[in-house]
Each structure stands twice: as structure tokens, then as C-alpha cells.
Amino acid sequence: MFLSEEIRVDSAVERTCQRLSSWLAVGGGEIAAADALAAGGRVLMRAGFAGLSKTVEVDTMRANVRDGVTVIPLRWSATGPAGDLFPTLDANLEITGCEAGRSRVALVGSYRPPLGRVGVVLDRTVLHRAGRVTIRRWLRGARAAVMAADSAGVPVADPATAPGPT
């Protein structure tokens, strides 16, 4: 199933790229994922699927730039023995400039629902909504990390020496 969500960040594209790369490198993406899963879990609970929550691992590759878009490939997957009961998301975090001093951050990717045909039916009825809520919440966490670093006056690292995502 295809998934695409985006947010605007009140930070220049270069700063946003550096802040997000650093945030992902130190595990900020996974911390935000735990918060985001709680929001998605509330959607599932309202739909009668109580107790479906899981910790995840967010693996990323080094950012690359193509046609003015910084792309950070990532894989979001559930951990532990019941991990195969949850979808794995393969996506790109895409960062582009928009109006002066602002950035657009989009998560574009796809996942296959677990549990075969039953999972596809569940995805159409409720799981897809929970996934969207989760991704939106995660992107808000990414924006908050960028904005917190900007407001704290944390210097932007030189791109040549900045840590990349793992």
C-alpha cells in the first residue's frame, strides 16, 4: 500500500537536512516512533483493536541529493518475535526548499499489510487510518526536533563532517 504525508518546517532547507540527519543518527526517529505508535494505537482502540502496539526500529541510509531534493531512505519495522504481525514501511524522507526560509518534509513509501488477505481487508477498514495517524505524528516529531534545535541556537554542523543516519 502506498503512503505519502508531508509537513512544512519553518527552517531553511540546509538546516532542516542537517537537523533531521542528526536527529535520525542519535535515535530521535525511534523515540518519535514510540509516540507516533501511541497515537495510531488510539485509532485502533476506537475501532475495537485494543492492544495492538509495538516498538519499532527506524533504519536509515546516508542522505543523498538529486534534482534539489535531499532524500534519506529509511525502513521502519516492528521489533521482537511478533514483528511479522506488523507492516514494514520502506520509504524516503524527502526534504526540499519551498518559500523563503522554509522546507517541505515528505515521507513517501509503501508497505505490505501483514496477515495476507485478512491483513489487506483490515488495512482497508482501519489499519491504513492508524498508519496515516502514526506517520503524521512521526513527521510532527521530526519538525519539533528541527525547530527545537533552531530555537536553542545549536550550530549547524559542516555537511562534510556531520554524522549521517545509520
Précis, in short:
With 166 residues, the chain is of the alpha+beta class. 41% of the residues lie in helices and 27% in strands. Helix 1 packs across helix 3 and helix 2 (28-46) packs across helix 3.
What does it look like?
By secondary structure, the chain is α+β, with helices and mostly antiparallel strands. The protein is 41% helix and 27% strand. The chain is built from 3 helices and 6 strands; from the N terminus they run βααβββββα. Strands 1, 2, 3, 4, 5 and 6 form a 6-stranded antiparallel beta sheet that branches. The longest helix is centred in the C-terminal third of the chain and has 36 residues, at 116-151. 30% of the residues are buried.
Task: Give the tags.
166 residues, alpha+beta, disordered C terminus, 6-stranded antiparallel beta sheet
